[in-house]
Amino acid sequence: MHHLRGYFPILNWGRTYDRNAFSNDMIAAVIVTIMLIPQSLAYALLAGLPPEAGIYASIAPIILYAIFGTSRALAVGPVAVVSLLTASAVGQVAEQGTAGYAVAALTLAFLSGGFLLLLGILRLGFLANFLSHPVIAGFITASGILIAFSQLKHLLGVSAHGHTLPQLLTSLGEHLGEINIITVIIGGLATAFLFWVRKGLKPMLRRLGASPTLADVLTKAGPVAAVAVTTLSVWLFGLDDRGVKIVGDVPQGLPPFTLPGLSPDLIGQLMMPAILISIIGFVESVSVAQTLAAKKRQKIDPDQELIGLGAANLGAAFTGGYPVTGGFARSVVNYDAGAETPAAGAFTAIGLAIAAVALTPLVYYLPTATLAATIVVAVLSLVDFSILKKTWGYSKADFIAVAATILLTLGLGVEVGVASGVGISVLLHLYKTSRPHVAEIGLVPGTQHFRNINRHKVATDPTVLSLRVDESLYFVNARFLEDLIQSRVSDGCAIKHVILMFSAVNEVDFSALESLESINHRLTDLGIGLHLSEVKGPVMDRLYQTHFLRDLNGDVFLSQYDAWKALAKSAEMKNAAE
Amino acid sequence: MHHLRGYFPILNWGRTYDRNAFSNDMIAAVIVTIMLIPQSLAYALLAGLPPEAGIYASIAPIILYAIFGTSRALAVGPVAVVSLLTASAVGQVAEQGTAGYAVAALTLAFLSGGFLLLLGILRLGFLANFLSHPVIAGFITASGILIAFSQLKHLLGVSAHGHTLPQLLTSLGEHLGEINIITVIIGGLATAFLFWVRKGLKPMLRRLGASPTLADVLTKAGPVAAVAVTTLSVWLFGLDDRGVKIVGDVPQGLPPFTLPGLSPDLIGQLMMPAILISIIGFVESVSVAQTLAAKKRQKIDPDQELIGLGAANLGAAFTGGYPVTGGFARSVVNYDAGAETPAAGAFTAIGLAIAAVALTPLVYYLPTATLAATIVVAVLSLVDFSILKKTWGYSKADFIAVAATILLTLGLGVEVGVASGVGISVLLHLYKTSRPHVAEIGLVPGTQHFRNINRHKVATDPTVLSLRVDESLYFVNARFLEDLIQSRVSDGCAIKHVILMFSAVNEVDFSALESLESINHRLTDLGIGLHLSEVKGPVMDRLYQTHFLRDLNGDVFLSQYDAWKALAKSAEMKNAAE
Lengths: 578, 578
Fold this sequence. Notes:
Shape of chain A: elongated
Subcellular location (chains A, B): Membrane
Largest interface: A-B, 64 and 64 residues
Oligomer: homodimer
Strand content of chain A: 5-15%
Protein name (chains A, B): Sulfate:proton symporter
Membrane topology (chains A, B): Multi-pass membrane protein
Transmembrane segments (chains A, B): 26-50, 62-87, 99-119, 126-149, 179-197, 217-237, 270-294, 306-324, 344-364, 371-388, 400-428
GO cellular component, one term (chains A, B): membrane
Number of strands of chain A: 8
Strand order of the largest sheet of chain A: 4-3-5-6-7-8
């Protein structure tokens, strides 16, 4: 039963669900639904899909996440970055507007769902850690910029395309002659209005005496107002006949049952993008979920989150949607509105289902420029270059990883950008460990503690060379220690003993073992003793299985101080140690 | 001048060159030349090139390496594994036997030389460390098997092809009907004879009273004898008319001046293989050079070796050769024969040039089966599965990397095999560091030394949780420590202080810094102090630039013992510590 509850978290919170939780969840659902209607249409537009796909992608996935997910406030559905990734991936296999495009989006959701589910069942959630915080921050910022530029065409009424900043700018430049002035006016006013709603409306309402809740709800309803006003204007003044592009016919009805395309060819082309979308979506979702859970001292199980998101994506694949994940904006709104359990998500799904059945004719005259404006205003809040300054001050390696991620995402597209970010972080880490810090150490007087002779006032002995190796020894740096000791002992001819203090050596792999053996042979030839100190348990366990310990010409000491006491010969040094 | 000598090591040994060194070098050169003539022809065959390419690849490269290389005994030229890699890479862009094939081999040598030179100038020799010892061992073993199977067609007189074991076996199976019995007899006898020369001839000659040097020279001349006898047999009995394939016309003359093909298309296709060949060739060459240098207490400069090998490959590209590197067999022979300086290599080049001018008509009737036999006997000595047993006993991660390298090299070819070996080693290393060992530690009584409470008898205090983090903290494991401390403090409610002993933390990157900040916030909320001890200098330097140290609710102690003295409250524990 316990095991079952692990896989169906709904069994935990469902048993204690009461009227109070119900009413809180209901209120949250109404607010989130109002916010989601224009947002879902807009993100579908960003993904290159018909507007209803955004609504469909918010219904089944939300319900499935409510059953399998562990976060109580996470709202699952289309989000900006994943929509952009979808457009980029699907754009490579099909033309926008074709049936093949929509089918490929379903396939992408299916593959992504399957991959997430697989990772969850294999408990491989730690893979997401390969995306470092700075790389994520850089990627989100660059994606925000890309998204904003990709929406410019809707705000100007021109037809441009591209998946990188240079492509988008070139394409916009080529089509600049087609600008539709009325579209520009609608788009400009909608953008300005939405920025004002975001920054200025809430303080103003509070000053006018509105309750915090009311002010909040009205602020969230801003995009709905923009949608309503611009739609009415187009309808009243027949602006669609004057070149303003509108959403047009949106089918009325519940999400259809759809089948993703599963030809080996399509799967082959979409597999890598699906893996990428899964990992990015998972990282975004888990960090939102953890942030919200921490506020209420609740816990998230990342491996179960993989299963929840996997189920949600499979749901999207079979109900006319596209890849989804837990979104930051919608989850925060859900949380702030007082959602207590995943049931709030289910009620939101019902609200959206009603909208899909009843309200779609109302958006016929909705100009795409308004949707573009809601996207631009939403994503520009994601753009934050402060990570560049923070990492520059702390670590140049992290800075390089962020800067490369931003530049490559803008210049070569989202997939290359994020993959390079991960690759560069890993390579820089390996590079750092390939030339480890090795400190010559001496005894801090009056203690049994040893520190770097260049940083601390310590006692040393010319016949004993004590080296603290500040890195695990493995193939990337195995030869480094060999060369270093070789050059150190050829410098100091008084040396009779070398002590390697292994307090920071967390691993000795097979290549490093061979290097240690060769160091031992060389020092034996030179009549110098090789000793180890403070070897950790797990490392010692390994070494016991080899003949290295038998061949070692010196000893292994429990502590560096023991080694020093046994080997330091000069009397004055001994005195200093006492 | 010193700087110049760094780039031209010839200026070092050239100044002191004397008659004694000259005569030693001369003797070595004669022995190596005799060995190299059949070997060069054979490796050219293995690479899919006309036989003279093997001789040409041994002339200019040897001279260029003598000028730029740092090893005194290394003999540069065609080697088995690089020949196999060449056949695999060039086979993908051109048909064997066409002019395009030979040009692509020149291009491969050119790209490889350029890449090595670039690495050398940028001092990037450490990149070779990414190939771990076990991966190299596994790769060499698998390559030896592949090479032996690729030569079976010559020993059987059939026409088969393929770059992986399944391909080779299938192709051999299909052509089994074409077997030429006379070829099988020649090939079988030559193989048996060469095995006997390698294993049994030297002991027998010594028993018969031959001097060690004479026995050695006669053993090295074994392949020449096989070549002479089989060539004569074919000529006398007209076996070439009975289906025995022979070497045929080999142009007489010095190496020609050739130009590698440099179309962007060809460069694009050969760039990755060239990088792979460069790195594998460099690793093989440097390990041979280091082994030989260590015996005479000489030194190798890996970055200058890159320049020497780069120059040698560029030389091969412009003189009708193909990629070369320092070979194990030829270098050992050179060393054993008493070579004192790189001049021995230059004399070998002269010997081979004479052979190219005068001796090529003599190999017209040489059966390719004899060449195949010399290859098979040479490469089977490379095959050594003991690395599997050794790594199995020591470290399963290393074992997995070796086993994968062997299986993938045999099953999918040399390029996939070695690239996967590197990738798998790196991923396994990252995986290990993603779940670091964290030991709860206590004071070893009577000392100031702290060890794992599960492995040693130590004193502890219920109000102080001391954790030794056995890994650098970076993005891959940043979140791990957060979760671990969270679960440890929620288990023990008596805990008032957490001390993180950082003796094994060699790096704290930006992601880990954010995790430490969040640990500090959570512990502060719970009224628990967070302290650090034994933070290394380089890590401390970084932390000083952040506000983490200001925000830290506890202290940073020089040693774990200081932290313990200051924080451990219970009197009996304090007593234990005194």
